[in-house]
Every structure is written in C-alpha cells, then in structure tokens.
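README: folding subset

This subset contains proteins for which both the sequence and a predicted structure token string are available. Records are stored as plain text. Below is the entry for START domain-containing protein (780 residues), shown exactly as it appears on disk.
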Amino acid sequence: MASRVKFKEVGSEGGTSESGDSESGSEGRPTNNFDNNDHGDKNNRSNNDNDGSASGGGGEKFEYFGWVYHLGVNSIGHEYCHLRFLFIRGKRVEMYKRDPHEDPSAKPIRRGVVGPTLMVEELGRRKVNLNDFYVLRFYNRLDEARKGEIACAKAGDARKWMEAFDHAKQQVDYELSRGGRARNKLNMEDEINLEGHRPKVRRYARGLKKLIRIGQGPEMLLRRSSSLGAGGRSDAYFDADSGDVVEAHEWKCVRTMGGVRIFEDVSNSKSGKGILVKAVGVVDASADTVFEIVLSLDRNTRYEWDTLTGDLEMLDSINGHYDVVYGTFDPRYLTWWQTKRDFIFSRQWFRGQDGTYTILQFPCEHKKRPSRSGYERTIINPSTWEISNLSISSSSNTARCLVTQMLEISPKGWHKWRNNHSQKFEKTVPYALLSQVAGLKEYVGANPALTSLSSTTVFQSKISHFSSSSSEFEDSEVADEFYDAISADSSSEDEDDDNDMEVNKDKKIKLKNISWAIAGLALKRTSAPDTNKELNSNEPPINLDPSQFYGSMRRAKDDADTNCWSSLDGTGFMIRGKTYLKDSTKVKGGEPLLKLIAVDWFKVDNSVTKVALHPKSLVQTAAGKKLPFILVINLEVPAKPNYSLVLYYAADRPVNKNSLLGKFANGTDSFRDSRFKLIPSIAEGYWMVKRAVGTKACKLGKAVTCKYLRQDNFLEIDIDIGSSSVARGVIGLVLGYITSIVVDLAIVIEAQAEEELPEYILGTVRLNRLRLESAVPLEV
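--- output ---
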C-alpha cells in the first residue's frame, strides 16, 4: 500500500524527464523518488566532484545525506545519543562526525553496504533526553541480534530515511540481478555491522542538551529546510478510502461547514445502532506535519484548533506507537452542565506503506487517574484519524493532505441536525469532535510556516547516472563496522495510489481515473488467472478432492458457521488490470489460481518455522506428496501463547518455470520480498478494527520478516508478524475482537511488467469468528 512516486532522470541531452516509480520496471533497477529543489548549487557541485560524467544507462546512482541521532549502548554499558551525519551512496552507507561537504578531510567512522537481509523497522516515538524522537531500528532478518537504532526529530524525516534505505536495497537487488562479477563482488563486501561497539570508543555523549551546543550541526538539523522528498509525489489525487477491497460502506455527504464535508454511512443508518460519521477536509500541509499537530499535546497549540481536548496530559507511553492521555474540559460552552468533565483515552498510530497515517483513539481507564472530586468522568466517542498526502501543484511548493476523522455516534439528535430540524446536536461532544478537522484546517491556513512542502531537518539528495559496469564498486577498501552499539530493544512505499496522476512536461496531465464511466467499467471487469500461462497445460489436472486433506481447523458448513474457514472467490478484491501500467486501472479479482485445501491453527510456546517439514504436516502425508505444487503460508501470530495460522494452497498441475508463479517459487528471497502481497479485509466486525487493518495491499516482505523454504513440491513462506512493532499492535487489536469478526485475505504476486499483467488472485481465505482456545498444540 504505497504511494506512487516520481524521480527526475537526466536525459541524454541534458534535459529532464519524469520517470515512473520502481514498480514500473521489471529489471529491479534502483530508482530515486526525491528531487533536489533546495540546495541545488551544493548538489550540483557534488555531482561534478564525485561522479564524473555518465557513462551508460545501467541504472540510477543516488545519494542521500543528513543529520541523525545514533542511539545505543557503549562498551561500558552507558546509553548514548550521538549526533551523526549519515550518507547513503548507492548501496554504501557511511557515518561521519562532521558534514563531509563542509569538511572534505572528514573520514567516516562507520561504513558498510546495505545487504539484501537488512530490515528497517519504524519504532515510533520515544523520549530521548526529554525530547520526542522518531526511532528507526535496523536489524538483519537472519540474525536479529545484530541491530542498531537512529532517531529523527520529525516523523517525515524517519519516513524519508526508510525510503532511502529501501532504495539502497533496490541497488543491491539490481546488482544481484546482473550476476557474475558484480554478484561475486557484492558477496565479498561486508554488510553494515549492526552489533557491538567500536573498541576504540572511550567516551559517550552526556546528553542531547550538550550536543545542541556543539558546532552547527544540531542547529542545521533544526533550522534548515529539506529537499529530500521535495516534489517527490506526482500531481496525484489520493482518496483515503480507496483500497484494494470492495467495501460495503455507502458514504453520503450530508453537510458542509468551514470547507469540511460531513458524511454519514447510510448503508447502516437504519440498523438502530450507532451511526458512523466522518469529517473530511483538505489541509494545506504535508501529512507528516498534520500528523504531528494531531499527536501533539502542547496546550498552546491545541488551543489554536481544538475546541474540546485542549488540556491534555500524557499518562503512559506503552511503546512508540501507543500511549494513554488524560484530558479535562469545561462543558459550559457546549451545554448547560456546570460540572467540569475529564476523560481518558488511548491512542494507537501507525503509517501504512502507502504513506497514510492512521490514529485510533479509544476511551479507557488508567490507575494513575481515578475519578476526581469536582469532575464528572466522560466517555469520549471512539474515533480515528486518517491523514494522506494529496497532489502537489506544479505551480506552487505547497503540500496538501486529506484529513479524515471518523467516529460512531448515537442516532439521537443526529438525524434532526442532519435534516436542519434541530441545533441541539451542536452542543454535544460528538459535534465538537467533528469540528476538529475544520479547526485544524483553519489553524494550518493561518500559519504559513506549516504549509511548507519541506520538513525541518537537513536532508539532501542527488541523482546521477552510473555506468553499467561493476568497476564503481571494485575498490579494495575493507568496510569498517558501521554501528558502535547494541540497541536497547519495518517501507518504503511500494504500493501505488489508485487515484494517481502522471505529469510530463511535454504532455498533458493524464488522470488515471478519468471518469465515473471508466471507474464503473473497472468495477465490472474481473481478472481471472490464465491457468495455461501459469500452470503446465500439457499435464492433465488432478482432482483436488477436499475429503483427502485435513487440518486442525475445520471447514465451514455454511455462512453462519463459526470458528472455521472457507474459501471465497476473488471478486471482493481489486487488483491490477491489463492496462495498469498505462492508466492505473484496477479490476475485480477472479477465481484464485490455487485451491485452499486445509488450514491449521496451532498454539506454540515459541514461533515455529518450516512447518511443512513437520511429520504431521499435510505436506508430508501421502495425499500431499502427490500434489504437483503446494504453497504453505505460515502466519506467526505473536501473543501469549503464540499462534501459527497455516494455510495450504494446492495447484492441480505443475507450475510453469517461466511463469510469474514459477519465478516466484524458484526465485531469490529479494525477488519474493518485492512481489509478495497480502490484501486484508475485515468483512464483518467492529468498525475500529476495520480501520486499523485497512483494505490496502501490503508487501509483507517490506513490512515484516519473511523466510522462504523451497523443497520438493512445496514453497513455504513463514511470516513473522511479531518482527514489526506496528504489525504487533494491529494484530493485538484484532485478537481482542477475534471471536466477533470475519477476516478475508487474498494473496497476490505483484505484476510489475506488461507481460505479467493482468494480475490474478493466487489464493484466498475467510476466517469466521475464530476462538483462540481452539488452537491445538504443535509438538516441535
């Protein structure tokens, strides 16, 4: 689920042209999605000094650099926070004490390469010396003991560094795809060392306040604008509600106020239960900026836009993506009540692969704040924020984002207000919450500094052609250790925005969703797999008799059955159509290529892998060994105890080696990570869980650690959901409602080249109101 981004490519005649994102190429070439509008002179000098002239079209070399904070523990056990200048050149990463642009004699104190097994996880916000920072964790997915952390002052900067490291991994994938000498050279290079301290280190930072007084680095970090990501997004309209699942909501605009539209979900308005409503507005600032404004508890800032929750206090910070907040308000301006009110709510937030920020707010209780004398405890309505970047106008440097606040309210009073029969609703807490989007819009509009496209840290990037030869990387220097700490403790944006626009200086703007007519046609068309293309048509299909295969979870008898699984067609999911690379049209999926034959639901003390090799696995049965091909999906669910949901998909004929499925089954782990997508959907259940899970495809190899086992007639994919703090938070919420929700999943191998289109659904499953206690122990 990620945004489509553009990069500037230097043409053969010295001009520039816009190229597509990394999805559009099938050769795995690295791309750069950051322009360098600011600091252009310095970047041009760097181009001349370091790169020389372009000597071929073998790929794009990119460089990203800027100040970060390096967090860790030194050799004598002291935690430190070092200010460091981080530099990414292609696949190489270097860390300096000083900016090498200003001090050419500066030598890197750490250096290494970004290996194919490097994972970058977003840990969210953390207090470091009384300041809030956004922390990124680096680890090797084959050895998670090797890890380290850096921190950024802004959420947007953390996102940009994640994109930069993802592009470095694309560089590695490109070199691996070239094979031969380049591959051998890469295998000989030292990957970034993610563990241990440098033996020569004898001192550590005494604190962030002291670091701010040292040199000009920290002041640059706080004051200079950024060009990393400037102009990175194309002129594209992004709908926060668009996804890869056909949803049942039917939103109707019932009011507009202050440039904000108020919607009601009319599909469930007659159910007699709560009404789902939302306020939607366009704010002239980046999603990163708005996210930090909404999350901020600063009293003076909240008073500028929030009419209700202005007085807030942090009670507890559970992790970087979850906290508990206490607030008070005087309700006299809302109602005739004289009693002061207080409330407690928890906040959980994360950023999707498409760049959308989601904040979930639940009412809760906390032992630090029992009921107070003189205050009446109020239960604040559960609500969500969704903040998504919109297009950037080619004629201005102003970022925009779409802000959606959604909440569930009682029907009493709502219908009268909606129909202009009563104004009493405007004196209620739900109305004050719905007014927050309008207040936020006006607050940002009144503060021009917030509308700047660039964020507030110094990041710079440059792009230049590099030769297709491998001589660039054939130096004899030995890479030093990169990290000097063991940490105290996942994205790039690869998915595409459905409602994107492409801009070319020599062409007119082309809307990818041109009209309602085209959108209607897209919904009517379906994409069925070409079985002759993916499976061997020369072999007769075998009969996949469901009675021959058994798992620990039973198959559903009917739609009303619970604690069971069923297979479903792919028409509820949206995938890439035949013309996707030209117009971004998505179509409904068709029948899955593979058939779901069994599901296991295991309870384990520790997460397990290589389930297919277990003697009692379906793969090892006589019936399983006769199958031409089995895809085993092992979802490792972190909990107490842990669980494993194992899905077995079978093909009725052998897989063509040259097909997309054949390349996926027999390819490299990097190729699999770049193609393996999961589309989730909560078909039935609590609306807050639906918003948390979302409906957009996720590249699991980019979000969590995936391990692959290819043997005999099967491919097993072990998906460690617990390897991402964000994924752990979402799955924890899902498990809390697991007995009352229906979960639909679709598996897709992403098509990135025209000959691979249209996409097809590889497999699906519906999990109907599972019970945790029904999981059976797995003897390891």
